[in-house]
Write a structure and sequence with these properties.
Blueprint: H1 2-19, H2 31-45, H3 56-64, H4 73-85, E1 93-95, E2 100-102, H5 116-124, E3 129-131, E4 135-140, E5 145-150, H6 159-168, E6 174-178, H7 187-194, E7 202-207, E8 222-226, E9 240-244, H8 251-259, E10 265-269, E11 277-283, E12 289-298, E13 313-314, H9 317-322, H10 328-339
Helix pairs in contact: 1-4, 7-8
Length: about 350
């Protein structure tokens, strides 16, 4: 954080020069009033101040010095966005009628290059089944291994469609679930998919809720259970590999955390991007919206996964350089299911 802060004054100066000095006030409330409202909303509701060791008071004192009532809305939006980026949280966004700000740092890490295009045409070839371009599946390795690519949990399968998929893959002795680059979406969709792998009601984590305006006013962790689907289930004696990378975030991070409680599940790849705070949306006096993490979701050990989840088997960039493999993580998953190593 220190290196990033050292550039902020310079960036704010450049912003003010680029946006010019012909400022006009088109708000129903002053920029200072909106700044204070935003800071207070986060102060009373954001859930990771202590976990991330963030001094929100120091951040207030730094950014209030950039706010003045004759600044235009572009400069105000950019300044408020930079303040929110101090939280280093992909679930924190500022919305105006013409702009959206977001923190993207969670996905920038040393990770294996991945493109489903390569998997689709080099590993799956012909005869691929799929639904609406967000999920593809096929039995590979002479029918021994099932492969499912689920691109985003923003989209969900109907129960009948999932039954069709699991029926087609039922004779495979192992399964690969590829959720690399899955940036999240709906917890309902990810839970419905995960429920196909659970054979009894299972504790999969905990959630806490804000109980007051204090930064550490939280409830005791409340248990989260996942019920098995009433439709076709993946056999619990058959192994499952989940492929992960840094761009697995939010609902996909939660999916990995829940699936990790199962004994037949192994994760392979690189650490996920995290994003374990349940988001909530509020509004500023000028009508801009702000989204932020308000309820931390914990794993079964009551630990945070906000910064990501490490895979059981790490496949690094250096591994790809040492091998001519088109997809080292996928090759490792295939080898693991076929040979156990």
């Amino acid at each position: 954080m220190k290196q990033y802060i050292s550039y902020k004054s310079f960036l704010l100066l450049i912003l003010s020069l680029l946006l010019g000095c012909d400022f006009s006030n088109e708000y129903t409330q002053s920029p200072i009033h909106n700044f204070k409202a935003l800071w207070e909303i986060l102060d009373e509701n954001y859930c990771f101040f202590e976990y991330k060791n963030i001094d929100w008071d120091i951040i207030h004192d730094e950014y209030i010095s950039y706010i003045h009532n004759d600044m235009d809305d572009d400069y105000l939006f950019s300044t408020l966005s930079m303040m929110l980026n101090e939280l280093e949280d992909g679930h924190v966004n500022l919305f105006s009628p013409y702009r959206v700000s977001s923190y993207e740092g969670w996905q920038y890490d040393e990770t294996l290059p991945f493109a489903f295009y390569t998997v689709r045409y080099e590993y799956l070839e012909d005869g691929v089944s799929g639904f609406d371009d967000f999920l593809f599946y096929k039995a590979i390795e002479n029918g021994k291994i099932g492969y499912i690519y689920y691109e985003t949990f923003k989209e969900g399968l109907h129960e009948k469609e999932m039954d069709e998929m699991f029926e087609e893959l039922k004779n495979c002795s192992g399964l690969i679930i590829d959720i690399r680059d899955n940036g999240g979406g709906s917890l309902t969709n990810s839970d419905r998919f995960a429920s196909r792998f659970f054979h009894q009601k299972t504790l999969t984590g905990y959630i806490q809720h804000k109980t007051g305006k204090g930064r550490n006013d939280f409830s005791e962790p409340y248990p989260i259970y996942l019920q098995p689907s009433h439709s076709i289930l993946w056999p619990e004696e058959k192994p499952v590999v989940i492929l992960t990378n840094r761009r697995c975030y939010s609902a996909s991070n939660n999916f990995i955390s829940k699936m990790g409680v199962l004994k037949n599940v192994t994760t392979i790849g690189t650490p996920t991007g995290g994003g374990s705070g349940f988001p909530f949306t509020s509004e500023l006096p000028n009508g801009w919206g702000v989204r932020f993490s308000t309820s931390p979701i914990l794993d079964i050990h009551k630990e945070h996964t906000e910064f990501g989840i490490d895979p059981d088997i790490l496949v690094k960039i250096s591994d790809s350089k040492e091998s001519p493999s088109l997809d080292p993580a996928l090759d490792k998953a295939i080898s693991f299911l076929l040979t156990g190593k």
